[in-house]
Amino acid sequence: MSQHNQLSLQWEFIISKVKSSVTVVDATLPELPLMYVNEHFTRLTGYTYEESVGHNCRFLQGQDTDPETVMQIRDALKKQQSIKIDILNYTKNGQKFWNELNIDPIFNESGECLYFVGIQYDISERKYADQQLKLATSMAQMNSRGQLEFIGKLNHELRTPLNGIMGMIELAGMGETTDEQKEYLELARQSSEALLNIVNNSLDMAKLGRGKMGVENIEFQPLKLIQQIVKTHEPAAQSKQIRLLCHADLNVPDVLMGDPLRLRQVLDNLLSNAIKFTEQGEVQLQVDVRQQLMDTVVLVFSVRDTGIGIPQHQIEQLFDAFTQTDISHARRFGGSGLGLTICKELLELMNGQISVESTEGKGTQFEVTLPLLRQQAIPNVG
């Protein structure tokens, strides 16, 4: 026996004992029949050597085998190219298994493709684990959406009787009351307003979580909106005997396009927090034009206070839901810790952003950057 034949027999023996499924296809025939399969292939598929050789590998396919995957394999073979792909195959007794298929063409010295060598790996366990992970992720997302839906409905139901309670408190305060009764009614009113604020924030969080929060793009007067916002917060500042200041850049356009309701919600929250956490000194709202483009004006709204400040190590967590800088602050000042989270989410919906700088014991400055369209940039479509 020649050395060449001995080498051929050695390679056939080696391939037959490889722990991976190995197949050799005759590339010179149009049907591309199998001309060799190793022992691992027969154990994996249940088909004997005799049942396999002479047939095209399509006998491993079944009703759930992806036609697109089959077409990709056929296209690679037609072009005599290598391919690595996952395909769902069937054993002889009809059991499904996932096959990682690696096919390489073998050429002779003349460049003629003689064989396709395939190495297959059973990846059924890995595919099953991936499917379980996807299922678990999908279930978690469904549960999360369900919880947000429940929270939204619950808080919506709470808001109706709460508004009724606040109305009755206001009516009771209109009648003749003693100083002690007035004090009780005022405490009840403050508590009701705090609870309503928590309910409204929870509703907004539920809407944001479900992707139900929308933003408008309508005309509004930014300077007029700022004046209204500041006027709303003047009584709270006066009651704490702190100054509430407002400065505006003269270059701010008279009319812009955006969502004044959501912008007001953000600035109301920032001013409310600034006043709440400031015992003496001042709170200032400033509006500046950062950039003017052809159709867009970028405004910067700065809210600065001389309050208690925020520790540096807690600034990163400031926009997380239900986060406050200190548990003692929660007891002393109240609040749910949802406001800044909602501000950040709303600004992202409006293509804006928010940042904060603070020195503990000296004060805090929030900066809101928001691009707004000029009025003339909106085409006349009607």
Describe the protein's topology.
Blueprint: H1 3-17, E1 21-26, E2 34-37, H2 39-45, H3 49-52, H4 67-78, E3 83-90, E4 96-107, E5 113-122, H5 124-174, H6 179-209, E6 218-220, H7 222-239, E7 243-248, E8 256-258, H8 260-276, E9 282-292, E10 296-305, H9 327-333, H10 339-349, E11 353-359, E12 363-374
Parallel strand pairs: 7-9
Antiparallel strand pairs: 1-2, 1-5, 3-4, 4-5, 6-8, 8-12, 9-10, 10-12, 11-12
Brief descriptors of the model:
seven-stranded mixed β-sheet, five-stranded antiparallel β-sheet, 12 strands, disordered N terminus
Number of strands: 12
Question: Strand fraction band?
Answer: 15-25%
Element pattern in H and E: HEEHHHEEEHHEHEEHEEHHEE
Helical stretch tally: 10
Main sheet properties: 7 strands, mixed
The gyration radius over C-alpha positions equals 35 Å
What is the arithmetic mean of pLDDT?
79
Quaternary organisation: single chain
Shape descriptor: elongated
* Unreliable runs: 1-7, 322-336, 377-382
Distance between the termini: 92 Å
Percent range of helical residues: 40-55%
Structural class call reads alpha+beta
Brief description of this entry?
By secondary structure, the protein is an alpha+beta fold.
